[in-house]
């Protein structure tokens, strides 16, 4: 599996770009998975549902299965948050994994940075950033793309494919 990250500060457009890149790569016939890091308590299950009741009763892992999709919910119950490498190992093999977040991990990343972001670009301190998507003429020395150049960014990502 090939892995590329999309990182940046909050509200700079990461999710918008990730969604567009996934759509573009998928339209090219590539299989794409994603991992989204959340810095807050997140719960995809809702109180009152059967699966929520299973977890609330103490189940460490609950699989919710239907005709269109499955969801696997795992309760850490005090264990450490899994690392990116541990999460990647859980995925079904695919062509590309797009990772949103995990900005301190050393995987190759594209930074999303807007001029009005109010924070310094990450690329100045992070050597694992290999391209930048921005709305201004950033002083990044490597590949730069406009935020709406989804095809160009997808071309760049595909060019990073490992044999």
Explain what you see:
The protein is an alpha/beta fold and 163 residues long. The chain has a single domain (2-39, 80-159), classed as P-loop containing nucleotide triphosphate hydrolases (Rossmann fold), CATH 3.40.50.300. It contains four helices and eight strands, in the order E-H-E-H-E-E-H-E-E-E-E-H. Strands 2-5-1-6-7-8 form a six-stranded parallel β-sheet, with helices on one face. A two-stranded antiparallel ribbon has the order 3-4. A hairpin with a 4-residue loop joins strand 3 and strand 4 (70-74). Helix 1 (14-27) packs across helix 4. It is globular.
Secondary structure layout:
Elements: E1 2-7, H1 14-27, E2 32-36, H2 50-56, E3 61-65, E4 70-74, H3 84-90, E5 96-100, E6 109-113, E7 129-134, E8 144-146, H4 150-159
Parallel strand pairs: 1-5, 1-6, 2-5, 6-7, 7-8
Antiparallel strand pairs: 3-4
Helix pairs in contact: 1-4
What descriptors fit this protein?
alpha/beta; 8 strands; single chain; 163 residues; globular
**CATH superfamily placement:** P-loop containing nucleotide triphosphate hydrolases
Sum up the overall morphology in one term: globular
- Rg on CA atoms, Å: 18 Å
The CATH architecture category equals: 3-Layer(aba) Sandwich
**Low-confidence parts, pLDDT < 50 over ≥5 residues?**
none
- Structurally, the number of domains stands at 1
The CATH topology, please? Rossmann fold
What series of H and E elements makes up the topology? EHEHEEHEEEEH
Mean pLDDT: 94
Share of helix, binned: 10-25%
Strands of the biggest beta sheet: in what spatial order?
2-5-1-6-7-8
Head-to-tail CA distance between termini: 10 Å
Q: What is the name of the CATH class?
A: Alpha Beta
Structural class by SSE content: alpha/beta
Strand content: 15-25%
Number of helices: 4
Count all strands and give the number: 8
Major pleated sheet: 6 strands, parallel
């Amino acid at each position: 599996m090939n892995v590329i990250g999309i990182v940046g500060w909050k509200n700079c457009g990461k999710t918008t770009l990730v969604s567009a890149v996934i759509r573009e790569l998928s339209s090219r016939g590539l299989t794409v998975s994603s991992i989204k890091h959340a810095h807050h308590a997140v719960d995809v299950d809702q109180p009152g549902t059967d699966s929520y009741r299973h977890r609330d009763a103490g189940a460490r892992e609950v699989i919710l299965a239907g005709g269109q999709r499955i969801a696997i919910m795992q309760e850490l119950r005090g264990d450490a948050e899994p690392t990116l490498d541990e999460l990647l190992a859980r995925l079904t093999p695919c062509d590309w994994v797009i990772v949103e977040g995990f900005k301190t991990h050393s995987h190759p990343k594209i930074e999303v940075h807007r001029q009005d972001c109010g924070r310094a670009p990450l690329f100045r301190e992070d050597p694992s950033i290999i391209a930048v998507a921005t709305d201004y003429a950033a002083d990044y020395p490597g590949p730069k793309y406009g935020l709406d150049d989804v095809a160009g960014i997808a071309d760049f990502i595909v060019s990073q494919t490992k044999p």
